[in-house]
């Protein structure tokens, strides 16, 4: 009996030592990441850190975290951010925060994103490479603000990036927001006869193939993975009488040149013309010209009031329904930094 007790004491001491070392390593890894951002020119502020979770969880809490990239006008703030993982496998990492604020430019305009009760999970394959298995995030609330106030609010949202079982270089992606509430500006644009449009619905599912599986080397400068193929399996936005859909596949070469085709479907394009003019995107002087062109494209399809178009990328050029659009934009390699 005495030997059993001493064995239990020894195992408890070893486990406690492992927990202390592992939580310290987690804390050190966070410090290294923040130092790397400082070296890259970011402004980094952190009020303090604390360890918790003994005996079954490795946990580090970061208080008063604030990151800012002055060159790109990007800021990220969280009053309390918790990193945790099972003590037996730190590769299943969870990141939680009650409130996260992100500010970044969208073109020339600043945009603020606020997420409440954010829960992100990172799952890695065991092994020296630490290959990414799954990355998922969900939030109880997501709000998008522009310079003039709220643009969009989402009651719940979930996004996921999951490695396919038979193709380790390919990842399934999806974004499924729920309970979308447009702000006053968007409501005015989409209202018809002073009647607000129904709540919009969004579904986005895609596959992305890289030149190699994503692993611990992905964040090293000069060793960033490159996207080789993007496959839109289901992308749909529905708001009232308007639906926008896109599907298709694009191959991306080493220079970022896309090659392939996307099928685009639009219902009630006339309402989109109204919205574009209200938003100031379409000058009244060009409306007749645009409507004439879209009517001709509608007549080539089989959907009254709708458009069935094919956007083709080939040899550095773009064509829409056989109409030349000029040089195709270069899609830069995906940089994970």
What layout of secondary structure does this protein have?
Layout: H1 2-39, E1 43-45, E2 48-52, E3 57-69, E4 74-86, E5 92-106, E6 109-124, E7 132-139, E8 141-146, E9 149-163, E10 170-182, H2 184-190, E11 201-210, E12 227-239, E13 242-252, E14 258-267, H3 269-278, H4 287-299, E15 306-314, E16 317-320, E17 323-327
Antiparallel strand pairs: 1-3, 2-3, 3-4, 4-5, 5-6, 6-7, 6-8, 7-9, 8-9, 9-10, 10-11, 11-12, 12-13, 13-14, 14-15, 15-16, 16-17
Structure description:
With 337 residues, this protein is an alpha+beta fold. The protein has a domain at 1-90. 20% of the residues lie in helices and 50% in strands. The chain has four helices and 17 strands. The protein has helices at 2-39, 184-190, 269-278, 287-299; strands spanning 43-45, 48-52, 57-69, 74-86, 92-106, 109-124, 132-139, 141-146, 149-163, 170-182, 201-210, 227-239, 242-252, 258-267, 306-314, 317-320, 323-327. It has a 17-stranded antiparallel β-sheet that branches. The protein is elongated.
Unreliable spans? 333-337
* Through-space gap between termini: 55 Å
Average pLDDT for all residues: 85
Q: Major sheet, described briefly?
A: 17 strands, antiparallel
Percent helix = 10-25%
The number of distinct helices, counting runs of at least 4 residues, comes to 4
Judged by helices, strands and strand pairing, the structural class is alpha+beta
Q: Cα-atom Rg, whole angstroms?
A: 25 Å
Shape label: elongated
SSE arrangement, N to C: HEEEEEEEEEEHEEEEHHEEE
Q: How large is the share of residues in beta strands? A: over 45%
Secondary structure tally: strands: 17
């Amino acid at each position: 009996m005495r030997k059993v007790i001493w064995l239990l004491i020894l195992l408890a001491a070893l486990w406690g030592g492992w927990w202390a070392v592992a939580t310290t390593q987690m804390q050190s890894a966070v410090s290294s990441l923040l130092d790397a951002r400082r070296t890259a020119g970011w402004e980094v502020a952190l009020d303090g850190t604390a360890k918790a979770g003994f005996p079954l969880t490795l946990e580090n809490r970061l208080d008063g975290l604030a990151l800012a990239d002055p060159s790109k006008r990007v800021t990220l703030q969280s009053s309390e951010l918790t990193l945790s993982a099972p003590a037996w496998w730190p590769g299943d990492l969870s990141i939680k925060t009650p409130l996260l604020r992100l500010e970044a430019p969208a073109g020339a305009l600043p945009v603020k994103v606020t997420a409440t009760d954010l829960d992100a999970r990172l799952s890695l394959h065991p092994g020296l490479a630490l290959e990414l298995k799954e990355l998922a995030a969900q939030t109880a609330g997501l709000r998008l603000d522009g310079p003039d106030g709220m643009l969009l609010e989402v009651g719940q949202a979930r996004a996921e990036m999951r490695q396919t079982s038979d193709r380790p270089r390919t990842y399934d992606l999806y974004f499924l927001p729920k309970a979308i509430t447009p702000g006053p500006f968007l409501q005015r644009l989409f209202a018809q006869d002073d009647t607000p449009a129904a709540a919009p619905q969004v579904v986005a599912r895609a596959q992305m193939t890289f030149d190699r599986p994503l692993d611990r080397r992905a964040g090293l400068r000069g060793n960033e993975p490159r996207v080789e193929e993007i496959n839109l399996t289901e992308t749909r936005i529905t708001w009232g009488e308007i639906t926008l859909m896109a599907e298709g596949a694009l191959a991306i070469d080493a220079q970022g040149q896309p090659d392939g085709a996307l099928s685009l479907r639009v219902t009630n394009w006339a309402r989109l013309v109204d919205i574009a003019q209200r938003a100031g995107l379409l000058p009244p002087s060009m409306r007749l010209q645009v409507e004439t062109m879209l009517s001709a494209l509608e007549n080539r399809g089989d959907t009254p009031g709708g458009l069935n178009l094919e956007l083709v990328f080939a040899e550095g050029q773009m064509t829409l329904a056989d109409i030349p659009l000029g040089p195709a934009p270069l899609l830069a390699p995906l940089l994970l930094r």
